[in-house]
Structure formats: C-alpha cells, structure tokens
Amino acid sequence: MPTRTPTTNEAAPKEPPAISPEIIPPQVQSALRTLGVDPSAPNIIAAVEFSMMFGGPIPPPSLLAEYNKVIPGLAEKIVGWTEQQRDHRQGLERQQVAASQQRLGRGQIIGGGVAFFGLALAAIVGIFGNPWTAGIIAIVSVGGPTAAVAMAIAFGRRPKPTAPDSEKLPKKPKPPPGETAT
After folding, report:
1. What is the H or E stretch that residue 27 is in?
2. What is the dihedral of CA 150, 156, 157, 163, to 10 degrees?
3. Does residue 113 belong to any structural domain of this protein?
4. With the CA atoms of 119, 122, 126 and 127 taken in that order, what torsion angle do they form, in degrees rounded to the nearest 10?
5. How far, in Å, CA of 131 to CA of 137, rounded?
6. d(C-alpha 162, C-alpha 168), whole Å
7. In which residue ranges of the chain is pLDDT below 50?
8. Which residue of 6, 39, 114, 145 pairs with 10 in a disulfide if CB–CB is 3.0 to 4.6 A?
C-alpha cells in the first residue's frame, strides 16, 4: 500500500511538544520520577495540573519576580492596583461611617421634635380641660420615640443567635419500641 504525502490543504501530523521545564516544575518532575512516571511523556504533560494559592492581596515576591520577567514593570503595576483598591475600599468605609452617623443624628433630632410636639399638644389639650387625654398624649409622645429607639437597639443591631455546632448535627434516630439503645 503506497504511503500518502499531505497536500498543501492538509496539515502534516504534529509531533508532541517537547517538555519544557516551565510546564512541570522541577519538584513535581522529581516526585513523578520517584513514583516511576516519565515526566516527559506527552500524556503526563497534558494530565499534570499545577495550582498555587496565597493569602492577601499581593502575590508572593517570587511570583512578582516571575511577572516582571514576562512583562517588565508588571509587579509595580500589581502593587499599585492593590494600593488603589485598598484606598478605594477605605474611602467607601469612611463614607459609610459618616452616613451612618448622619442618619443617627437625624433620627435623634426627629425623635426629639416628635416628643416636643407631643408634649406641646398635651399641654394645649390639658389647658382646655382634658387632663386624661393630655396625659395619654404626653405618655405616647415621649414613650413612643423612646420605645422605638429601644426596639431598634434591641432588635436591629444584635446579631441573630446561631445554634451551637452540636445542635446542627443530625440526631441519632430513636430505637424502635422494645429495643435498647447501644
């Protein structure tokens, strides 16, 4: 049977890529060799996956140096981006704290105004001969905002209680009647 040569429209079969030290790190290559695996085999190159994790916003110095080898100045850009993100986040936190303080101050002013208006209304009603109604209005006008503040503190800012870990575990089923638990 004659062998066929590829035409210009057909691609010649490709040889598997030669292993490069950058594909599989030397530590992984030596570990593969100790297990009796040839790290230069094409199927091994395709099967090995290498991942790296680090904590914090900036990669470790060795990785930054590798970035600089690929694109000069990239490490400085990464550090600059991290600093910009930090400044942005801190600015948002400052705005949030300032807005919260304004909201609290506004709430106290409105609560004081409601209480003052209620007391003034109670005084007017009391002057015109309805002391019981005046007393009820005074209690509601002073007690209402006070109760609202107390409820906001008690229910609004306290974290919801969570069950201890032992309560989250499934309970053992009870044995059928007549059997003893082991």
Report:
1. helix 26-34
2. 120
3. yes
4. 70
5. 10
6. 10
7. 1-2, 6, 8-13, 16-21
8. 6
DSSP calls for 81-98:
HHHHHHHHHHHHHHHHHH
Nearest to 78 by CA among 67, 94, 62: 67
In a domain, 179, yes or no: no
Cα separation, 74 vs 64, whole angstroms: 8
Distance, CA of 77 to CA of 86 (rounded, Å): 14
Residues 134-147 have pLDDT tens digits of 888 888 888 877 77
- The CA distance from 39 to 29, in Å, is 6
| 137 burial type by CB count under 10 A (0-12 exposed, 13-18 middle, 19+ buried) | buried
CA 168 to chain centroid, in Å, comes to: 23
CA proximity to 106, closest of 121, 114, 154 = 114
For residues 98 and 151, state if they share a domain. Answer: yes
Same structural domain, 82 and 47: no
Domain-embedded: residue 149? yes
